[in-house]
Write a structure and sequence with these properties.
The structure is a single chain. This protein is of the alpha/beta class. The chain has a single domain (3-148), classed as 3-Layer(aba) Sandwich (Alpha/beta knot), CATH 3.40.1280. The protein contains five helices and seven strands. The protein has a seven-stranded parallel β-sheet with strand order 3-2-1-6-4-7-5. α1 (12-25) links the parallel β1 and β2. α1 (12-25) runs parallel beside α2 (42-48) and α1 runs parallel beside α5 (131-147).
Length: 160
């Protein structure tokens, strides 16, 4: 299953929305600390509704800890500083979609550790989408690809 990882998230409402997305789709979510807010913050609860207790959630003390945990998985960074469009990528079931901080993205050291960097093509003059919306778009494509792998080889009868 494709996972979502949030690098030092800034905004509790976006984090809550992404936790809700993970809960609803059964997608594991990883928080790479430190977050810029406390977990009891009201915005996190409001955006996540009553789903927060049902999300497969792992909190990592640092990026190094996260890298140790994810050592044999492909790390795909969603960034405005990429040339590969997310629609042109072949996703694998063990990929991890990495999202940067809303205010600053990720530092160059984290950027360099990503196995692949993808972007969402937009109209000229626009910087970026909301991080939760961008994640939902890329996750949707990754799940579309990985949930149907192998189905095309199943014989269902003659083609007419």
């Amino acid at each position: 299953m494709v996972d979502i990882a949030l690098y030092q998230p800034d905004i509790p409402q976006n984090t809550g929305t992404l936790l809700r997305l993970g809960a609803c789709l059964g997608v594991p979510v990883h928080i790479i600390e430190p977050a810029a807010f406390t977990w009891s913050e009201r915005g996190l609860r409001r955006a996540g509704l009553d789903y927060l207790d049902r999300v497969p959630l792992t909190r990592h003390a640092s990026f190094d800890h996260f890298l140790e945990w994810s050592a044999h998985r492909r790390l795909i960074l969603l960034t405005t500083k990429a040339s590969d469009d997310y629609l042109d990528v072949a996703y694998a079931p063990d990929d991890i979609l990495l999202l940067g901080r809303e205010s600053a993205g990720v530092p160059e050291t984290v950027h360099a550790r990503a196995d692949l960097r993808v972007t969402i093509s937009m109209q000229p003059g626009f910087r970026s989408l909301n991080v939760a919306m961008a994640c939902a778009m890329v996750l949707g494509e990754a799940l579309r690809q990985t949930r149907t792998q192998g189905l095309s080889s199943i014989a269902v009868g003659p083609v007419i």
